[in-house]
Write a structure and sequence with these properties.
Helices cover 84% and strands 0% of the residues. The protein is mainly α and 158 residues long.
């Protein structure tokens, strides 16, 4: 499927490529009345461009539908995270209330330990440094970014 998508995108057929990813190759072939393949001659690509122009409204509607689904999935995911964090904070367990900050502190401590090791000429395995850096980004984004999303959602609902 990816070679087909790459062929479509490289030939300026973004709407068709998006429709193939959203609905599938067979659906698009039936809708446009053309055959799709990863290795298409220029004549066939020209035919698909004409079909894209003729069906542009339908293809745009498919793209909007897909965007709406993505937005709804993001909203549902954010709501689930907020619910999980709310449940954690209402728990009587000290650990459930403090696991996120402790995780962030542990990852940053490990990252800075490797940084100090490098500063004093000790060998730090690059893959561990990269891994801790990536984890740190994810945890910081979830912790601080998630909190920001919660605040914005609260302000929006008021």
């Amino acid at each position: 499927m990816m070679p087909l998508i790459q062929t479509l995108l490289s030939n300026g057929l973004g709407l068709v490529a998006n429709a193939v990813m959203a609905k599938g190759k067979e659906f698009v072939e039936d809708k446009l009345g053309v055959k799709l393949a990863a290795d298409m001659p220029p004549e066939q690509i020209a035919q698909i461009k004409i079909a894209e122009m003729e069906h542009e409204e339908e293809l745009m509607r498919l793209r909007l539908e897909e965007n709406k689904l993505d937005i709804e999935a993001f909203k549902a995911e954010a709501a689930a995270v907020t619910d999980r964090w709310t449940a954690d904070m209402s728990s009587d367990s000290w650990l459930s209330k403090n696991i996120r900050p402790m995780t962030l502190i542990a990852i940053l401590a490990g990252y800075f330990l490797f940084a100090f090791m490098s500063a004093f000429g000790m060998e730090a395995n690059e893959s561990y440094v990269t891994l801790l850096g990536n984890w740190g980004q994810i945890v910081m984004l979830a912790y601080f970014g998630g909190r920001t999303v919660e605040k914005v959602m609260e302000m929006k609902h008021k």
